[in-house]
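Much of the work behind modern protein science is quiet bookkeeping, done one molecule at a time. The fold becomes a row of whole numbers, each drawn from a learned catalogue of backbone shapes. The protein below has been through that process, and both of its lines are reproduced in full.
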Amino acid sequence: DSTSNTFYLTGVQLEVGEKATEFEYEPFSITHEKCKRYYQELAIGSLYYASVTNSSDIYRSYELATTMRASPTIAVHSQFRYWSGGSGTNVTPTFGVGIDGLSNQSVTLYTESLSSGKGIHDGTFSADAEL
């Protein structure tokens, strides 16, 4: 009778057909894994490549925790920086998404035209495959 009411619903289970079944409970960990099919966020910590000296590009793949329901859209959440011999320098990477023969999904981060690039310093990206 009013538009100022707020309703909170939990424990809803939709049924197909005319007969209701028992409510299905599942552990939080399983629900969490299912949610990762739609959205994941990855923080890249420091990845210093000691064997790379003054490289102009850096290439690195990151395996997603769970294969997503569709090819995700990749977005940068916090600035990526590359290590340039003593300090971090901002960089905007290019991303690619692939699935290997074992159905593991990965995101590839590629940067080029760097000055003395020795590794990715930090940054965060998300993979979004929501409906």
Notes: The longest helix spans residues 28-35. The beta strands are 39-43, 47-48, 58-63, 73-83, 88-91, 94-99, 105-111, 119-128. The radius of gyration is 21 Å. DSSP finds one helix and eight strands in the chain.
